[in-house]
Design brief:
It is a single chain. The radius of gyration is 26 Å and the shape is elongated. By secondary structure, it is of the alpha/beta class. The chain has a 10-stranded mixed beta sheet with strand order 2-1-3-12-11-4-5-10-8-9, with helices on both faces. It has a 6-stranded antiparallel beta sheet with strand order 17-16-18-15-19-20, with helices on one face. About 35% of the residues lie in helices and about 20% in strands. It binds nicotinamide-adenine-dinucleotide (NAD). The site of nicotinamide-adenine-dinucleotide (NAD) has 20 residues, from loops.
């Protein structure tokens, strides 16, 4: 941990002015940060529309990565993502390439200055940013069935959960809630929940609870004031952070951080708003609040606090851009530049009615690196053979009985996860995608047994699509039962 004044050199910050309203709101945000005394070594970085047009399908030039790798922070205005044409989302590419594992999104109400049904709402969502269904590993398996792999790693869970607890501790937040669906996804979401419990033990002063994501989201949407910090996996986090921003009434005001071990990225949650670009009407608040998060991250919490309080005071004084004013129906509507000037003129002031923010110097988080566990004793005990088949379960079982051999016996067939053999019932709807489980009666098997089984399947005309090995790890099953098994 350090404070900027203890450093000899200003932290290097890559700044992208982006597309649409990006240049206007970035200029406004930087003007405010500079006026508040931000100490930054700014390196401009061109990304977005122009780069896509030049043929860079990720929206960034190769040399852009060098700028990012040398920076401590990346302050990014929104960009326009061209539709189709093989263009890839720059945000996803940057997150994955730079290992930005934690997506942090505060969602606060600013009632009555911004209309909301939940004036007491003040929560932060910490979303895992790299894993889960967002690995993008998808396959069409049969005529009828498509698959997306959900990957969850222990180091990935440990890193994000520890980040959430450290964030709560540094920002004096009292509770961390974990959202998963581990009643259904017992291994993947189960791991996330288990790691939450394990790491939570190191933070006894913080209240901890776990919610199944469906009822948790319902509660979040109706009683957001019950939550403080929420930590969750990538997909649920993506959904609930939009729910939370929306009910706070402040989608246009929300900033977010994408935290990585080397560089971290800070941006508004809204897009490039091409419909209002170049008109000096855009609200720079989302980007400015992302800038506040960045100043905290860089150890300049004094600057972060000054800017945030001046911004709250501006809001409280009824000065706002058209998007917010339309909702609140109070005060004076101004343009982008005038709004930034209003914030600058209030630097050093605090809000009188809204609660002023207090940032401590230890808002800079030092996250202990993940210590990887020693490899487990892994034993292969069987195999799931996935098969395309248009007939019924009994006929398929009869065919598969014919390829049994060595220690591998057919134990179960499922269709879309539900057991249909032995003892299936005719009401179960079946697709053309079958999971056929072969297991050893006891103990482990040689991998050659799986190769031999696959070979017999080919000879017998079984249309198998893939195999998934069944393993135990230190004696614990690394696979789930079929539904109804
Ligand atoms: P958008 O967020 O740009 O705009 C939605 C609506 O909100 C528009 O009516 C817009 O005028 C308004 N709005 C957004 N920000 C505002 C602000 N600061 N002040 C006042 N009004 C504001 O969403 P969209 O129209 O779906 O997307 C436009 C482009 O932005 C697309 O190309 C999309 O891919 C891109 N996008 C980029 C990012 C990013 O860079 N992080 C995020 C989302 C969307």
């Amino acid at each position: 941990m350090y404070h900027s004044s203890e450093l000899n050199e200003a932290p290097v910050v890559a700044v992208a002015h982006g597309d649409g309203i990006g240049p206007e709101i970035m200029t406004a945000a930087l003007d405010v940060l500079r006026a508040a005394g931000a100490w930054l070594d700014i390196r401009p970085l061109e990304i977005g529309e122009q780069l896509y047009r030049q043929g860079h399908t990720s929206g960034i030039a190769p040399e852009g990565w060098d700028t990012l790798r040398r920076a401590r922070a990346f302050f990014k205005a929104p960009i326009t993502t061209p539709q189709g044409g093989g263009m890839k989302s720059l945000n996803v590419t940057i997150r994955k390439t730079l290992g930005l594992y934690a997506n942090v999104r505060p969602c606060s109400a600013y009632a009555p200055y911004v209309a909301t049904k939940h004036p007491g709402m003040d929560l932060v969502i910490v979303r895992e940013n790299e894993e889960d269904l967002y690995a993008g590993i998808e396959h069409r398996q049969t005529d009828e069935v498509y698959q997306c792999l959900k990957l969850v790693s222990r180091p990935g869970c440990e890193r994000i959960v520890r980040y959430a607890f450290e964030y709560a501790r540094a920002n004096r937040r009292a509770k961390v809630s974990c959202f998963t669906k581990d009643n259904i996804m017992k291994l993947t979401d189960g791991l996330f929940h288990q790691v939450f419990n394990e790491i939570g033990e190191e933070y006894p002063e913080i209240v901890q609870d776990h919610w199944i994501v469906d009822i948790g989201t319902a509660r979040l949407a109706t009683r957001p004031e019950d939550f403080d910090v929420i930590v969750t996996t990538n997909l649920y986090g993506d959904i609930i952070s939009d729910v939370a921003a929306e009910i706070a009434g402040s989608v246009g005001l929300a900033g977010s951080a994408n935290i990585g071990p080397h560089v971290s990225m800070f941006e508004a949650i809204h897009g490039s708003a091409p419909d209002i670009a170049g008109q000096d009407v855009a609200n720079p608040s989302g980007l400015l609040l992302a800038g506040v998060m960045m100043m905290n991250h860089l150890g300049q919490s004094d600057v972060a606090q000054r800017v945030h309080n001046a911004w709250l005071r501006t809001l409280e004084d009824g000065i706002h851009t058209g998007d917010v004013g339309a909702e609140a129906g109070i005060g004076q509507t101004v343009g982008t530049c005038a709004f930034a000037a209003a914030v600058i003129s209030r630097l050093g002031q605090e809000p009188q009615k809204l609660a002023p923010v207090r940032y401590s110097a230890n808002a800079v988080l030092e996250i202990a690196p993940v210590v990887r566990k020693a490899p487990a004793d892994r034993q292969t005990v069987g195999v799931d053979l996935f098969v395309q088949w248009r007939g019924g379960a009994e006929d398929l079982a009869a065919k598969l009985k014919g390829i049994e051999g060595g220690p591998l016996e057919l134990k179960m067939i499922t269709n879309r996860g539900v057991k249909v053999w032995p003892g299936g019932i005719p009401e179960t709807f079946c697709t053309d995608h079958w999971r056929c489980r072969f297991m050893n009666g006891g103990g482990s098997i040689d991998l050659n047994e799986i190769v031999a089984l696959s070979g017999r399947a080919v000879v017998a005309g079984v249309d198998f699509i893939k195999t998934e090995h069944l393993c135990t790890f230190d004696g614990e099953a690394g696979f789930t039962l079929g539904q109804g098994q």
